[in-house]
Amino acid sequence: MMGIEERKLREKEERRALILGKAKELILERGVDSLTMQDIAASCELSKATLYLYFQNKDAILTEILEEAASSFVDFALSRIPVDSNGLQALQALWSGYLHLYGESQDVIVLTGIKNYIDPEFPLGGEGKNGIFGTAMGKLLDLIADLLRRGMADGSLENAGDPEKLARTVIIIATSIIDTVTRIPRPRRNAQIIRGEMRDIFEIILRGLAAQGADPSLLKLT
Amino acid sequence: MMGIEERKLREKEERRALILGKAKELILERGVDSLTMQDIAASCELSKATLYLYFQNKDAILTEILEEAASSFVDFALSRIPVDSNGLQALQALWSGYLHLYGESQDVIVLTGIKNYIDPEFPLGGEGKNGIFGTAMGKLLDLIADLLRRGMADGSLENAGDPEKLARTVIIIATSIIDTVTRIPRPRRNAQIIRGEMRDIFEIILRGLAAQGADPSLLKLT
Amino acid sequence: MMGIEERKLREKEERRALILGKAKELILERGVDSLTMQDIAASCELSKATLYLYFQNKDAILTEILEEAASSFVDFALSRIPVDSNGLQALQALWSGYLHLYGESQDVIVLTGIKNYIDPEFPLGGEGKNGIFGTAMGKLLDLIADLLRRGMADGSLENAGDPEKLARTVIIIATSIIDTVTRIPRPRRNAQIIRGEMRDIFEIILRGLAAQGADPSLLKLT
Amino acid sequence: MMGIEERKLREKEERRALILGKAKELILERGVDSLTMQDIAASCELSKATLYLYFQNKDAILTEILEEAASSFVDFALSRIPVDSNGLQALQALWSGYLHLYGESQDVIVLTGIKNYIDPEFPLGGEGKNGIFGTAMGKLLDLIADLLRRGMADGSLENAGDPEKLARTVIIIATSIIDTVTRIPRPRRNAQIIRGEMRDIFEIILRGLAAQGADPSLLKLT
DNA sequence: TATGAATGAGATTTCATTCAT
DNA sequence: CATGAATGAAATCTCATTCAT
Lengths: 222, 222, 222, 222
Known about the structure:
Four copies of one chain form a homotetramer.
Chain A (H helix, E strand, L loop, with lengths): L3 H27 L6 H8 L3 H7 L3 H23 L6 H18 L1 H5 L3 H5 L17 H19 L8 H20 L8 H19 L13
Helix pairs in contact in A: 1-2, 1-4, 2-3, 4-5, 4-8, 5-8, 5-10, 8-9, 9-10
The structure holds a DNA duplex.
């Protein structure tokens, strides 16, 4: 009874996960640019053709990795933002969550950088390819817009125009940076230095968004 | 009188310029990633082999384009920074110069994005390949560090650590953004929107660097 | 029964063999120097890319052809050397085997000439590239050294120094000659003449190595 | 008066010599296979096009270098062969001259190896390209045939068939060896080892040609 | 479902040779 | 006489993707 169908489904899901996982590893190891289907297949101990049973093409793999990474970041960030925080506090929590997650597993975060590889136009361009970023990346966009709106309302953030637009701007900055980092193959990537660099960048942004006279302790990331 | 030698030299220089120009156009048209020697040759109405008479290899072409772009930006920026300006004013002038130059000729600026293609590790990584960026890109780095130092000294900028390091951080942000833009093929690139976006980004950075209580008029870019 | 796996393996082996075979033909037809991957592919009715499924690169193809040729010669030669023969007799058997094999299938022998293409420094130079010649060519070297040693011991060969070194010398002569022959495109290669020439050369060498007063019948090759 | 014509001719000859000289140097430095017109031109401080004013094509340059080398060897050899020597003595003088010349200037000799590059069929094949080797190489052939004939007549050499044919055989051996050596780029060429190797080879040949019971001192080269 | 095998389409680079000036 | 400039033709190798089994 039941079962057989479910098992198949589960197995299928496991394979997908395997592929995504190995692809992720490879990207982290050697950079997005030099990721090949061959490499993915080999490290999964599958044939290249099999990859196409689970994903329509290379892009689909990258997109899904990105989705996952973005999604897990959003979840993590949400979990770290106190309900009663003001906008600035929330933003601080967001970035600091980012840095934490990076500390724990560079992976999840660094991968966000694939965005520029898959759809460099998001969120600058018109539609992006097929509105690929409706889901996780979109949720991230919404989240940030919310925080900005909140902060403009409670006076903790500078009132600098449309929150939606500003959210896009913030994402652009963040993903651009991360993209830059992703292109450095892991062997030469210095986690310490990069984390420090990202913290500096995020602090600049934080100060750039905060209202005049904000509590200095909220402008520091750890 | 005389001049045959000179003419030859000039013509040679013109050919180089032609090649660089067409390559630039192609990059702007279709993105760095899909630039091929074949394409460059075709659009110059030359044979592939001829390109190698003027440049040692593809990298040399990209490097020179980048060099030129960076160099012309530095020159332009320098010309716009008033001698007696304080650090914040100077920085404002720098970014606003950037935006201006972009308005006049997207090209010069957008091309800076090639950096990430040629040496994605600069200035994060160790040495980059062969210290390619000793010249123009290095001058830019120095310029920004100078302005930051000046601003920290005269109190117009937040005293936030080592100017050299901060300059690197600023460059990372800027080039990352530009890189992102470069990857959008021109047909879908909306100059107006992008310019607006860049202005927003630079304003955030400017505010992020400025000292508390800075003159608000210095935090706006036009 | 069963055998699907085996069949696949066999087919794969056949393809490799096909490629090697056609490559061999082309070399014999037009000389090593003008062998191209394109040509090999075309004559196998395969695409260039396919060749790379079976061999890592062009060198690998050449190396394997050489390996095979050398190996089959060593085997053949060994089978023709009587167990109780003295050194001179053994050497005579070796060369005469060579000529025979040449008579049967120029291919096996002529191809030895590739050596000079792949590693012209062997056995003169230091290491050659990666000791490519550890296997068959090395075995040949050992075999000849053995025969020389045997002959010096039993008095059938002139005692003219280190057998190892002398063996290298002999190989140099042989491969050089063959190399010369390989470079003649087949249409103008006259098997009869060449065989005669090789016989003369080997006879000279044989006489050069034999002890004074050796049985004249052992100095003739047929 | 007069003179102008002569001077032109002399200058032309000097240019040819320059080109040949530099080409020679390059071959010795880096091996025949990697000699390019570009390299020759550059090292003559001439343009590639100019080379074509003095030589019809690359082959012509190589051919002439070979001619010269062969010719100078023949001359040198002739000068070293005592008039009243018997065949074996003469042959010994020939080879020992070879080794001497090699010792003095590897150049002249090593270059003989180009033969195989230019016309691998000589003297095996039918006509060779355009009977290129009518001159110096032909003279060498004649010289050796003469010595062999002399030796067979005076009993110092084994009477082993047609001297003309045997001379061809000897040349094949010699040039093959040299060809092998030429392909080793100079930096890895060890003059001492090679000279030793060549001496061994020539001694084997010498013994192979000598009549039974020949004076052992005539079978050694120095 | 899985895969081995195949491939089309390119990409970069090299080189002997020609020709207008 | 000399050459700068140009090029056609090749050569090696890579990669995402397809398809028969």
